[in-house]
Amino acid sequence: MSIWELEMTMARRVLVLSAVAVWGGLILIVTRHLVWSAFGVEVILWCSLYAALAIFARRRAQAWSRKADTELWRKRETNLLSNFLWMAIIFSILCVILGLALALLLGEKNLAIQGHGWGIVAQATFIFVINLIHTQMI
């Protein structure tokens, strides 16, 4: 599988998982429970961002696969993708820490903040796992 095909496969996976998660977030919002509704809002916001990134990555991979499919470009793209995924993994770890701080420290007094905090933890953990799996595929 070329790096371009891998990028398109990764983007497709993220799009599908994001769509499923957005529906889950909508269901959580409907519960009208403050914690679960806030959690659902975080799911929808983060997954919408992931979906937008996946659409951009897929279009970019399609364009580059047609005009820059040489060994030098494939190697460059492989390094770029690997670096991006590792930076995203580090960012995910920071987001988990932030989400835990929100949920555990500020969330005691405000259930909405607690829900947002746990939503951030869930989404950051999700993207951490997805990116870790994808780095192993490169």
Explained architecture:
The chain has helices at residues 3-30, 34-67, 71-106, 111-137. 91% of the residues lie in helices and 0% in strands. The mean pLDDT is 91. It starts with a helix and ends with a helix. It contains four helices and no strands. 31% of the residues are buried. The chain is mainly alpha-helical. It is elongated.
- Beginning-to-end CA distance, first to last residue: 10 Å
Described by its quaternary structure, the protein is single chain
Inertia-based shape: elongated
| Largest β-sheet summary | none
Number of helices: 4
Low-confidence stretches: none
Mean pLDDT across all amino acids:
91
Query: Approximately how much beta-strand content do the residues carry?
Result: under 5%
Given the helix and strand composition, which structural class is it? mainly alpha
Order of helices and strands: HHHH
Computed over alpha carbons, the radius of gyration is 17 Å
The helicity comes to over 70%
Number of strands: 0
Task: Provide a quick synopsis of the model.
The chain is 91% helix and 0% strand. It is mainly alpha-helical and 138 residues long. The protein starts with a helix and ends with a helix.
Summarize the SSE layout with pairings.
Blueprint: H1 3-30, H2 34-67, H3 71-106, H4 111-137
Helix pairs in contact: 1-2, 2-4, 3-4
Identify the notable features of this structure and list them briefly.
138 residues; mainly alpha; 0% strand
